[in-house]
């Protein structure tokens, strides 16, 4: 592939020497280009500069029966019910 790119570049005088992303950046940063062309180049390049965040889900359900908790763990859980969600520290221990 690299050899083919070099052959084409040698055959076309003044050919752009960078990759596709570099060309898009050069176009959208060039104030001499029409704004429509610059916007199109920016729209194509942004996916590589700032990838979209992936959606995730959190499953915070308990996987243990209440009978499996120790008295100390139950005391921590009961004490935490009176607090606002997210306040205080999470119980330490094995996960």
Question: Could you please describe the fold and organization of this structure?
Answer:
It is a single chain. This protein has a domain at 16-51. Helix content is 46%, strand content 0%. The model has no long low-confidence stretch (mean pLDDT 81). It is mostly helical and 95 residues long. The protein contains 4 helices and no strands.
Rounded to the nearest angstrom, the distance between the terminal CA atoms is 49 Å
Care to count the β-strands?
Answer: 0
- Uncertain runs: none
* Structure class: mainly alpha
- Mean pLDDT rating: 81
Question: Roughly how many Å is the radius of gyration?
Answer: 29 Å
Write the layout of secondary structure elements.
Blueprint: H1 2-11, H2 20-28, H3 35-49, H4 71-80
Helix pairs in contact: 2-3
Keywords for this entry:
95 residues; mainly alpha; 0% strand; elongated
Can you give me a brief rundown of this structure?
Helix content is 46%, strand content 0%. By secondary structure, it is mainly α. The model has no long low-confidence stretch (mean pLDDT 81).
């Amino acid at each position: 592939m690299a050899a083919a790119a070099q052959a084409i570049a040698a055959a076309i005088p003044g050919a752009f020497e960078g990759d596709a992303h570099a060309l898009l950046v050069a176009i959208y940063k060039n104030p001499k280009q029409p704004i429509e062309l610059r916007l199109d180049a920016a729209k194509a390049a942004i996916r590589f500069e700032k990838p979209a965040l992936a959606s995730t889900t959190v499953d915070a359900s308990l996987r243990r029966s209440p009978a499996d908790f120790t008295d100390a763990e139950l005391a921590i859980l009961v004490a935490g019910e009176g607090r606002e969600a997210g306040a205080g520290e999470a119980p330490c221990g094995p996960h």
